[in-house]
Design brief:
48% helix, 10% strand, Glutaredoxin, alpha+beta
Length: 226
C-alpha cells in the first residue's frame, strides 16, 4: 500500500480542486491518504514569497482560472464572498476534529465538509454564524481555541517546511514532493512505478545551477529591517 501525505489549506482553491480530484487520480492504486492542514501564509513567509492573491493581476487570473478548471471538470465551485481570508478558524476546527491517535490529521469527511463550506455557495467562509453552524455539524473533540490545537497547527506547518513544502496542494510519498493540482498525473505515474522516476530527470533538477543568483530571503529581509 502506498502512503500519501496531502498538505492543504482550506483557503486555497487549487487545494480544493485537487482534493475533489484525488480519488480519481488514485483509482486502482492501493493507498492511504493522511490529510495534513498547514498555514499557507506561514509557508509563504518562510520562503520569502508573496501569496498569489497579493499580486493584483495574478489574483484576477487565479479566480478566472479556478472557475474555468472547475467548469471544465464538472466540479462545483463558487468563489467565497471575499478572498483571501484568514483561514485560522477553519484550520483549527479541522484539527480539533482529528482523532486522538493522530491529532494532526483530520478525516477526509472533515476536510471535505470544510472545503465545500468555503468553495460552494459563494458565502462568507469565516462569518461567525457560519463557523458556529459548521462546528456544530462537525462536533470537534477538542477546544478550537485551546493551546493543544494551536500548537498542533504550528507543528503541522513546521513539519511541512522541514520537509520542503512551499505551497499547497502538495503530496508527499516516500519523501518525494508533488506540488500543485497539475501534479496529480505525475503523482499517479510515480505510484504506478513509471520508469522515468528512476532516471536522471528527478535528481538532476536539484543540481541545476542558477544563472541569476539571488539573495536568500532572510538576508534580504534583514537588510531592509536594518
Amino acid at each position: 500500500m502506498q502512503h500519501i501525505t496531502f498538505y492543504l489549506d482550506f483557503a486555497s482553491p487549487y487545494a480544493y480542486l485537487a482534493f475533489e480530484q484525488l480519488p480519481e487520480a488514485l483509482a486502482g492504486i492501493s493507498h492511504s491518504v493522511r490529510y495534513q492542514p498547514v498555514l499557507l501564509g506561514a509557508l509563504f513567509k518562510h520562503h520569502g514569497q508573496l501569496g498569489p492573491a497579493e499580486v493584483a493581476p495574478k489574483r484576477e487570473w487565479l479566480y478566472r482560472h479556478v472557475q474555468w478548471l472547475a467548469h471544465s471538470q464538472g466540479l462545483g465551485l463558487q468563489l467565497p464572498a471575499s478572498h483571501p481570508f484568514n483561514p485560522l478558524p477553519l484550520l483549527r476546527l479541522a484539527l480539533a476534529c482529528s482523532p486522538e491517535a493522530d491529532p494532526g490529521a483530520p478525516s477526509r469527511y472533515v476536510c471535505e465538509t470544510i472545503f465545500r463550506h468555503v468553495w460552494q455557495g459563494g458565502l462568507d467562509a469565516v462569518s461567525a454564524e457560519r463557523l458556529e453552524a459548521l462546528a456544530q455539524q462537525l462536533a470537534p473533540r477538542r477546544e478550537l481555541q485551546g493551546d493543544a490545537v494551536k500548537a498542533q497547527l504550528k507543528a503541522n506547518t513546521d513539519q511541512a517546511i522541514a520537509a520542503g513544502v512551499f505551497g499547497v496542494p502538495t503530496f508527499s510519498v516516500d519523501g518525494q514532493l508533488f506540488w500543485g493540482l497539475d501534479a496529480l498525473p505525475m503523482l499517479r505515474a510515480f505510484l504506478l512505478g513509471d520508469a522515468w522516476f528512476d532516471g536522471p530527470g528527478w535528481d538532476a533538477a536539484a543540481r541545476l545551477p542558477s544563472g541569476l543568483p539571488r539573495q536568500e530571503p532572510s538576508i534580504a529581509v534583514s537588510k531592509v529591517n536594518a
